[in-house]
Amino acid sequence: MKRKLSTLFNRETVVEKLHKQALMFSIVGSICFIIDTSILAILVEVCQLSIIPATILAFVIANIVNYFLSIKFIFINGKFSIHNEVGGFFLISLMGLGFNVLLMHVFVNLFEIWFLWAKFFTALLVMSFNFTTKKWLLFIR
Questions:
Q1: For the segment 104-139, what is each residue's pLDDT rounded down to a tens digit?
Q2: N or C: which end of the chain has fewer CB within 10 A?
Q3: Which of 78, 121, 80 is nearest to 99 (CA)?
Q4: In the chain, what is the straight-line distance between the N-terminal and C-terminal CA atoms, in Å?
């Protein structure tokens, strides 16, 4: 009985776990944002690639890094087999890519916002979508 009681009091609450997970997601997301934005800036400014192909390439590279960092530090136990988990992760990321491309097009081509500011605003929206969907659809904790 003592052991069960002490275990009960030592367990993190669901809210505490979610806060830790959100913090780690923010750290990993920040790292991937820097990777994504740096690659985007290089592709647009140095390589003179147009904004949409540059956005796609930068996003894909950053998402590969994001996957490995996420399974290492954020979403430890998945609900599914590794094959389904990877497939689901990248399917959700593909939806995020669609939002990313759409928002970048709207901000840069229609509203004529500087592409790095557009990237910042887009990243905030896509990050929220990614965390919510990956957390609730793919991973247990």
A1: 999 999 999 999 999 999 999 988 887 788 777 766
A2: N
A3: 121
A4: 27
Q: Cα–chain-centroid distance for residue 22?
A: 11
Calpha distance 120→124 (Å, rounded): 7
Torsion of CA 25, 28, 33, 34, to 10 degrees: 150
Of 132, 134, 60, 69, which Cα lies nearest the Cα of 100?
Answer: 60
Is residue 30, in this structure, part of any structural domain at all?
yes
**What is the model's pTM?**
0.77
Number of domains in the chain: 1
Residue 38 carries which side chain, given as an amino acid letter?
Answer: S
Place of tokens 């949409």: 52
Domain limits at 41?
A: 16-138
Q: How far apart are CA 110 and CA 108, in angstroms?
A: 6
